[in-house]
Amino acid sequence: MPSSPRPTRGFQLGTLVGARVIVQPSTLLMLAALAFLFASGTEGGMTRRAFTLGLALAVSLFVSVFLHEAAHAVAARAFGRRVDEIVITLWGGHTSFDSTALTARVSGVTAVAGPLANVAIGLALMGIGAALPLTGIGAGILSWAAYANLLLAAFNLLPGIPMDGGRVLEAIVWAVTGRRHTGTIVAAWGGRVVAVGVLLWAVVPPLLRGAAPSLFTIVWAFLIFSILWPAASQALRWSQTLARREGVSAASLMRPAVALRFDASVAAALNLADDAGAEEVVVLAADDAAAGRFPVTTAREVPADRRETTGLDAVTTPLPRGAAVTVGADAEALVEALREWWGRTDAWVVLSEGEPVGVVRLLDAMNALR
């Protein structure tokens, strides 16, 4: 199982479905900024009462963001995925979960869960507002919270990375074509289109009306653009990596190997390897676990007249226990294995139904996965 990522710095509020709930300190700055922004736009200007109301509206927005991320976490957990963190940040939030051997279905459903949660919350709040005779501040906060959830859902459903709608689009194209990197390319370009569209939305409509664009709107549009465009561009670069990794697996990288016990001779190892056409020999310990390996070329360096009497310890490179991957391990699984084993061994034993069938050298894997 892949190891959990290093915890994000921030205030930990608890756990949900096994995931740490983290609020980054920068979130407090955004809360204060939003409270000031909301308060300054109220009738009567900035007052203590207006700031308190603005803070309540800002808090309701971040609660909506948290529920959005919580829905992602619950969906991922429903697919049996380990969920590591739910992080609330300056610009929103993100959820980290185990994406090993990810499928289009898991990716798409997990992504759409967040916006659907906001739609459900928004409609529920609208229903509560219609059913209860609320007035004044209570009615205002409820109405704002409903509007914020629906707006959050609509924005996140835009078909471009890094929005959830982009991940849904990626999953759809992935499922249709069978290629994840194709879906990533389409969704990343969708993200770039959305980023440019935000700028055009801020500038074009006022100009068509013969008015000057609002400086406030332009600033916010540029901030959103500065988040969306780099994220989409990074996804495009990632798609190139995915394309290079397509087809990379333990089976494609391994050098065929045979296995025999540690007490055999170099001659026995060479005879077995030659009969099987193997390039590597895996040395088994007394309990039949892989304990070492060596290339056949190394064994051939032993003089022919000494091979019968030379033990495998003379040519074997030790392997740490557990330095193995299955023959079906794909590129993503190999990346996780590299993170775990780099610096601890120079090769993995490749297992098929628990039996050694090959050896993958870590340098070969790293070069193939770059």
Strand arrangement within the widest β-sheet reads: 8-7-6-5-11-10-9
Task: Calculate Rg over CA atoms.
Answer: 29 Å
User: What is the total domain count?
Assistant: 3
Structural shape: elongated
Per DSSP, the total helix count is: 12
Number of strands: 11
Structural class: alpha/beta
How would you briefly describe this protein structure?
The model has no long low-confidence stretch (mean pLDDT 89). The chain has helices spanning 26-40, 48-78, 104-131, 136-156, 164-177, 180-208, 215-245, 250-253, 266-276, 296-300, 331-341, 362-369; strands at 11-16, 19-23, 83-89, 92-97, 255-261, 280-284, 290-295, 317-318, 324-326, 347-352, 355-361. With 370 residues, the chain is an alpha/beta fold.
List the defining traits of the structure above.
370 residues, CBS-domain, seven-stranded mixed beta sheet, four-stranded mixed beta sheet, 3 domains, alpha/beta, 12 helices, 56% helix
